[in-house]
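quick one: heme C bound model?
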Amino acid sequence: MRAYAFNKQRASYRRGLVLVMLVWCHPAIAAPKDLDFNRDIRPLLSDHCYACHGPDENKRKAGLRLDRREDAFKTLKSGNRAIVPGDLKRSTLVQRLTSRDPDELMPPPEEGKPLSAGQVQSLIRWVKEGARWKNHWSFIPPERPVLPKVRERDWPRNEIDDFILERLEKKGLKPAPEADKATLIRRASFDLTGLPPTIGEVDAFLADDSPEAYEKLVDRLLSSAHYGERLAANWLDLARYADTSGYHFDGVRFMWLWRDWVIDTFNENKPYDTFTVEQLAGDLLPDPTREQRIATGFVRNNMTTDEGGSDPDEYLNKYVVDRVSTLGAVWLGMTVGCAECHDHKFDPLLTKEFYKLYAFFHNVPEKGLDRIRTDNPPPRLPAPTPEQAMRFVETDFRLRDAEKTLQDRNNELGETQEKWERETNANPPPKPSDEGLLALLTFDDTIRPSTRSTATEQASPETKAEPKQPIVEDASPARQGPQV
Ligand code: HEC
Ligand code: HEC
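yep, here:
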């Protein structure tokens, strides 16, 4: 118990020390170099101003919006401008942040969310330096950064090494020695194919003394079919690939044809734009190929249900929402799911826009309850292999041949039968004599009603000679009456 308390105390002492060092060394606090809008400014505006100067129209004060560039810089109803880049005097925002009058000060003191002196300084400096606004980071195209300066100039072999070395040097560390060849081939194989090298491959690599041995190894791995599998794995995760339907029974469905399309696509090194278009709308391309149609399996990867009691319309909606959300996360680099139900202060996408995208995907002739546990829910695409397609055609020809033969035989039979009927009618065979007849069974009706009628008609000799109803007759009086 005591030891524990002691250790705890020591640990918290250490934490304190680390904290002090962090405060000392943290560049933003020690000596702020460049202010970054997204890192240093937007969070302040968001936490302290958006409640009254943000996206919520109903709560917006003084017509001032600080979450959008064009609004933050414009002339307000009062005639003032909150932010005039580089001009502290004319920027009302600066005056309001530094005012000594509690009625003027922003945020209003009664809100209880005051800015610290340092935060106010950051905002002022930002305006002074030109109030550089930046889009949300996910909309900023990546830029090639300037290479950092390093001391050990011989070590880097490509630009990435420069960045690693810079950090190492900053920390006073030396790069680790180069790995031996067996380790290298193991790493490269896992990295590019997801599989370990075979013993033969290791031996071949060890035996290759040429200076390009490693390049050759990498080329071999890049041209391996497993390379596509390795790259596809990430995409399959993003695209919510599964060979089962997900909800409830998690029944079987077959999406592996689409999966193989992804693998082949990576192995072919298909350009990203084609990769995108084919998966989202391959079927809408002019004369789409079988592969372009299969690519759209991406859109059908959503989970489906067949659970009794579920509301079909609700689930149909879920499927479409899933497609829009996946499109946002996978292609636009932003989660858009919140906009399904309401606008949100940080979402660049409005609910209205969410449903504009929704409309594109709300045209699959599918059902909310797929009612299938062992196969893909319709609509489906027949996707035979070329060999299977050939066999389909061949089989179809054979079927038509057989149908033709059958028809010919039927025609022949018709003629023969007609002839026979004509001849037989003209020259009927003699009637068999009914001498010694015990029973006459005509088999053209059930037995039960005929035996009943026998009971009443039996007396008439005429009936006996020319029975209209099927009759089971028994002359013995003891056995008269209904029989089975
Ligand atoms: C609780 C609500 C609230 C918050 C939070 C708030 N303000 Fe205000 N703000 C107001 C109101 C109300 C007015 C209009 C009355 C006034 O001018 O005092 C106003 C006016 C202003 C004006 C003057 C607009 C003009 O037309 O001259 C500026 C600039 C301003 N706010 C900046 C800010 C900044 C910057 C923040 C965050 C650091 C902030 N406000 C936070 C409520 C708020
Ligand atoms: C399925 C519909 C739905 C989705 C999806 C959804 N919300 Fe909401 N959200 C609501 C509803 C309904 C309310 C109102 C709840 C209430 O008033 O009781 C709400 C309220 C809120 C509020 C409170 C707003 C206020 O003024 O009090 C916040 C914040 C919020 N949602 C954020 C989010 C975020 C962030 C996401 C995405 C991660 C999200 N919501 C996704 C339906 C949804």
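Residues 226-361 form one domain.
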